[in-house]
Amino acid sequence: MLTYKTNQQNIKRYLFYQVLSILCLILVLFVCHFAFPKYHILKPSSFWIIGIASFIGLIVELNRERVFEISFNHDRQEMIFTYKSHMFSKLKNYTLQYQIAKVEKNEDTSFIKWLKKPLTIYFYKNKTEVFEVSKKKDGFSGNVLNEIYKTCEQISLETKHT
After folding, report:
1. Cα-based torsion angle of the residue sequence 105, 16, 68, 3 in order, rounded to the nearest 10 degrees
2. What region, left, alpha or beta, does residue 109 occupy, with left being phi > 0 and alpha being psi -120 to 50 degrees?
3. In what order do the strands lie in the sheet with 92-97?
4. Which residues contact 118 (CB under 8 A, 6 or more apart)?
């Protein structure tokens, strides 16, 4: 049995940075609003809209599925995903048989660094997406994600590279 574990078992640090970036954005807008009052860059209601949109974004991040471990059981011909369906749930396992599994690797080659989407691997059961695994969301390093994809190729899963 071959197992790949994430480097990010606890996502509190990631969420802390998310909240910190939201607060910095609101602080910059707040300072600009009061530093240049005659330009009326933002109306007071804009702060509510920005705050609510940021809060909704944070809730969405809390409710994303995060994969913590991927195991390949060659004897039983299956992949086992250990994941959480949201931040406050318990760890769950999902089994995907090799015969019906498909894997797609998406590696963005954008020349603008901050627009790049990091290396992402999608796991499908027939044609339905089961899991999306990436460095940003799940904490797997780029090398580990490449190893996972190579393992999928070695066990003759249907793979696609985009």
Report:
1. 80
2. alpha
3. 2-5, 66-73, 78-84, 92-97
4. 108, 134, 135, 136, 142
Quote the tokens at residue 121.
């691997």
| Structure tokens, 114 | 């901050």
Cα distance between residue 88 and residue 5, in whole Å = 20
Q: Which pLDDT tens digit goes with each residue over 137-153?
A: 788 888 888 888 888 88
Neighbours of 131 (CB within 10 A): 19
Q: pTM to 2 decimals? A: 0.72
Tokens matching residue 115 = 């627009």
For residues 45 and 113, the model is more confident at 45
